[in-house]
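target protein:
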Amino acid sequence: MSLTPHPHNLSPADAAHFLRRTAYGATDAQIRALVGQPARTVARNALNFDARTAPDNPFDPAVGATPGAMLQLTRAAWLFELMYGPHPLRERLALTWSNHFVIGTDKVKNHPALAAYLGLLRRHAAGSSFERFTLEVSQTPAMLRYLDNDRNKKGRPNENFSRELMELFTLGIGEPGKPNYTEQDVREGARALTGWSFEGGGNVKNTYLKPVSASFNPRQHDDGQKTYLGQTGRLDFGDVIRIAATHPQTAVFVSRKLHRAFVADTPDEAAVQGSAETFRRTGGNLGAVLEELLSSAAFYAPQHRASIIRGPVEYMVAAVRTLGQPRLEARQLLNLSQTAGRMGQILLQPDTVKGWDGGREWINDSTLLTRMQVAAALTLGGTAPPPGAVPGDLALFGSENGPVQAALNGLNPRQRLYLALVSPEFQLA
């Protein structure tokens, strides 16, 4: 059964909750613009994004003098888009998918490959076919390199990508005693995936800016008969992606990921099953799943508000968007992208192939101190930008009548902003 819709037009607190989850944060004016609208309309409008990006992005990775400089500029350029781009939900989803279809810049150091990967995450962020998304991201040079499919050849199969395709991208491992796939599926999948690599580019010092493209060598492909997840034939790359991406368990696995991103760190399984039903009914239409999810009673449930710990990047982007998107200097943005790494989140380089764990893993004594330093730099320091408009309680805390608000009364605006940004109420979305 599909998710129950939110029964009311949006209240101020509803609108604040929606924008904290889907746009990282917003000004009081942006929040009040949604008040009184139907939840479905608000979700549909937020998901109606195009290919536009933030104007005047000061970072061009193609001018990086070294691979390391190119990577720093790539991260800073994405952080700029997250903070100032016209489609925050698109970027929110791109960041979510980068933690699902994981690649890492420890192995992928080619600018065109990274640009193509990021562009694909944006293009399919709320697309109509999860199968198509999975196929296209799997055939990016970034993914082929990161999961070693460029080394997967007939007679010498490399099982890395075959395993992660099922474990992390589609089916999931399954339950104890009830695995969703077998080691034989891993082996047979690897055989089917042979022959796909990439041409050009590379990661060495003199090719990190050179174009790169996926390629297929039929002489290195094992075209023999295979049995994969219960289906037998002379299966190839596209067959394996289709079988895995349309497997019944994939609907549950992907829906749970979306609920973790937008509803709760520990989602309600009945609600997950509701989204999974919609996923199956629509043939893996992510836009349909997200529109229903972001307008559901589960999304707006009181117990799910202020319940997700903002990650380092989300925390910084939320602060800037809540302050009215004051323009930071390029050096400040470069510093912030590096600071996110010190808090445990280097863009395009999750900790492991399974991505960042998130939740309480974001918080410890060191990262809390760094968050306080970020808040101080944005509100108290000599280089702190003036906020576009002093944010009110609705923008800062998601409600107009909370206990923390009274405690901050009487402080000057900058002190109040600093203490608001370091409060638990702001660090939870």
About this structure: Residues 67-84 form the longest helix (18 residues). The beta strands are 174-175, 178-179, 196-200, 212-216, 226-228, 231-233.
